């Protein structure tokens, strides 16, 4: 079989393959296939899933369609891990990606080349000094994050203290108002008043305390009067017996 004949066969096979950006329908077919059959056997996926793609199904799934992919920019914490692992493993991106769930080896490689490779080339420092400088930058970012968290906590504590002071001021004001009014003739506020419910509860407690204090006072006075009467009676009996 001649070379021209073989080229004709391959050309006929490649005529049906699609190129360019993936469509939403192609993504849907690939996702449904992986859900049913799992990952693997990527050479047959295009044919079995009804896709006219030549060997791009695995890359499309791994880099774009996996449900566990992590979206968004690389975080400072992830950047620190990339720096540490690259110092250990070099350009073994798939090995580094295992320590960063949701990130692909291609994404990590592109991030490294964009953010660090140019700086390493343009610098006359050794790789060790370059990594040390990058690690110092990471530590600086972490310190900034810790300072921001501490400031937020302090602001929350200050706000909480201010709220407590305001609540205590309102309570003391309501107590002053209640003391300036006579308890028997005081009309309790209704729920329509903004402070009515709180004041109503406080006045109930105040009235209960006042009633208890009155009972104690009356009991003390009555007890003292009875003791006094007993003393007077006993004195009368003593005087009568002596006469």
From TrEMBL:
What does the UniProt entry say about where the protein is found? Answer: Nucleus
Q: SUPFAM superfamilies annotated for this entry?
A: Homeodomain-like
Coiled coil (UniProt feature): 132-163
Which top-rank group of organisms is this from?
Answer: Eukaryota
Q: Which residues form the HTH myb-type domain?
A: 18-65, 66-120
**SMART domains per the record?**
SANT
| One GO CC annotation | nucleus
**Membrane-spanning ranges:** none
Keywords (alphabetical) are:
Coiled coil, DNA-binding, Nucleus, Repeat, Transcription, Transcription regulation
GO molecular function (one) = sequence-specific DNA binding
- The answer, when asked if Ligase is one of the entry's keywords, is no
Kindly give the InterPro entries that the UniProt entry links to this protein: EOBI/EOBII-like_plant, Homeodomain-like_sf, Myb_dom, SANT/Myb
**Entry-linked Pfam families:** Myb_DNA-binding
Q: Where is the Myb-like domain?
A: 14-65, 66-116
Which PANTHER family does UniProt cross-reference here? MYB TRANSCRIPTION FACTOR-RELATED-RELATED, OS04G0508500 PROTEIN
Q: What is this protein called?
A: Transcription factor
| Organism name | Sesamum latifolium
